[in-house]
Design brief:
Helix content: over 70%
Radius of gyration: 21 Å
Order of helices and strands: HHHHHHHHHHHHHHHHHHH
Number of helices: 19
Distance between the termini: 19 Å
Largest sheet: none
Shape: globular
Strand content: under 5%
């Protein structure tokens, strides 16, 4: 049992540098961004990322998740097969997607957001997807230090370019271009640091390997799209029924509760690795519930602190134009807490390779978020978005817990 926790702590420390450390740096940039970018321009940058994230799961078929699971523990030749097969598929998907978006954007009116920023949305989508693919493969072949450096390098590039360019060009478009530069930097670090070109060979492409990757990954596509719907669907609703400025206000408000997600990104990646390694080992059920109990206590404590100190914290984190968003923090914090707990249960689905449970649980959640957003946002605006976020995350937690209990019973037999 001690070795399990030692491994978890080691992975947590490495992931902290590359993932949570990076997100904390961007979190600390919030006062800078809200000082130079008004709510409308901040809303533009947020909506660009929102649409790119929506398309990411559809375009990549979530093959980046499969390339973390299948190469782990395999021989070098098998790792080459998985990496090469997945990469060929990913690049082919990008070509088809680029042509498709070019055609589709022509049907939008000239003033439509998607048409105005389609090139930037596609760039963020492509670079983010490739960066995720390379990072996940680094994790699969135990190049955790490179994984960490890639995430940290991405963030440093974004931070430094923002400090240089945003005061001179305070627009959401420029911030989107800076994010593209960051993803490109992270890609270079992953390629050079892990020498990933050694894993790519044209002759290593295997149709059977690609089929196995896609069999695992495709059931995750609806989940990825649904996850976007749960976290990002409110942005298009806010844009339509309120304004781009409302999107900017919501984007600023969600940043403080997102510290829960930052903390979970540290533990969550390491937790997923540990669950993959320890699943079906003796004592796993007890190990899981011990971790879940500790996590729940931590989440409750953080939610209480954020709720009580929301007004105080926001005075330091945002510009004066955004101070009013502190009233949404309690609801958004509670939703973020539910999301963290649901994420910890999701590791069971990956370890059991029963990705259908991601789909089932997310189907319930996305149904609720669509209904809540459609009903509440047109009537209550930003308050409706905050309530819809919290209620949909609660639905997801309850449903994931039900399926998780089923898997734990199978392990205990």
């Amino acid at each position: 049992m001690a070795n399990k926790y030692t491994r978890l702590l080691k992975n947590t420390g490495i992931v902290f540098v590359g993932n949570a450390g990076s997100k904390l740096l961007l979190f600390l940039m919030l006062p800078f961004y809200t000082r130079y970018l008004g709510p409308t321009e901040y809303g533009v940058s947020d909506l660009i990322v929102t649409y790119a994230t929506m398309l990411l799961g559809l375009v990549t078929c979530q093959i980046q998740d499969a390339v973390f699971v299948f190469p782990k523990g395999e021989t070098y030749s098998r790792q080459q097969q998985h990496f090469s097969s997945g990469l060929v598929f990913l690049l082919g998907s990008y070509i088809v997607c680029g042509l498709g978006i070019f055609v589709v954007s022509g049907f939008f009116s000239r003033g439509a957001f998607f048409r105005q920023y389609s090139g930037l949305i596609v760039s963020v989508l492509f670079l983010n997807g490739l960066h995720q693919y390379l990072q996940q493969f680094c994790r699969a072949v135990d190049r955790m230090v490179i994984y960490a450096l890639s995430g940290l390098g991405l963030t440093l590039i974004v931070v430094l370019l923002s400090i240089w360019l945003i005061p001179v060009y305070p627009t959401g478009r420029v911030l989107g271009l800076i994010q593209c530069a960051g993803f490109a930097g992270g890609i270079v670090i992953s390629l050079l640091g892990a020498r990933l070109w050694h894993y790519f060979r044209h002759g290593a492409f295997s149709r059977a390997s690609l089929v196995n990757l896609l069999k695992y990954a495709i059931p995750l596509v609806p989940t990825a799209v649904m996850w976007w719907a749960m976290t990002g669907l409110n942005r298009p609703f806010l844009e339509r029924y309120c304004s781009l400025a409302a999107v900017g206000f919501y984007a600023a408000a969600i940043k403080l509760p997102s510290i829960l997600g930052v903390g979970w990104s540290v533990i969550g990646n390491a937790w997923q690795i540990s669950v993959l390694e320890e699943y079906r080992e003796p004592g796993f059920v007890r190990y899981f519930w011990s971790f879940f109990g500790i996590l729940a206590c931590g989440v409750i404590a953080v939610v209480l602190v954020l709720t009580v100190g929301s007004t105080f914290f926001m005075r330091f984190l945002v510009g004066p134009e955004y101070y009013s968003v502190s009233k949404f923090i309690p609801l958004l914090s509670l939703g973020a807490g539910f999301s963290v707990l649901a994420g910890s249960i999701g590791a069971l689905y990956a370890a059991s390779r029963k990705s259908k449970y991601f789909f089932y649980s997310s189907l319930w959640a996305v149904g609720s978020v669509v209904a809540f957003n459609a009903v509440l946002i047109p009537r209550f605006g930003l308050w409706g978005a905050a309530w819809a976020n919290m209620l949909s995350m609660a639905v997801e937690l309850v449903v994931r817990l039900c399926y998780g209990l089923k898997l734990l019973k199978e392990v205990a037999r």
